[in-house]
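Hey L., structure's done. Input below.
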Amino acid sequence: MDQLTISRIKQAHPIIRKELEALYIECNNLLPKGVRIRFSSVFRSVTEQNALFNQRPKVTNARGYQSIHNYGLAADYVILLDKDNNGTFESIEWNVSNKYHKQVIAFFKSKGYEWGGDWKSFKDFPHFQKAFGLTWQQLKSRVDIGMTIIDNGITYPKI
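Output:
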């Protein structure tokens, strides 16, 4: 298992944390030897989100509080390849039409996660989220009125 991903999963909203870890393990077990997924981002602070929003070239349309990452209910991923078969997984496969990406996408969608590649505008291909039918506005409203829980020093909206 990728310890970097496991540490990122520990920052996911408590309501999906165990599920996300189990799905991460299951998905990796479905991929062939020498191919692994890594979560490149799970929880993202408002400061981190605003920095991404201001980045050029543009990588997101979401300002702070407008991303489901800000509530710990999203994950971005990359495909790692061990091209030398030495266990280092040093290569990243970016082409989302690659068969491994297609496997990951189909897997997470089959588990009820929304895929950013299905969005009408600003497609976010390496993104999955499970927001329980709530918009970012509804999640922010819960935070604003104190309808929150604190876990691992992070404040999450109650779901």
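The longest helix spans residues 14-30. The chain has a mean pLDDT of 95.

-- N.
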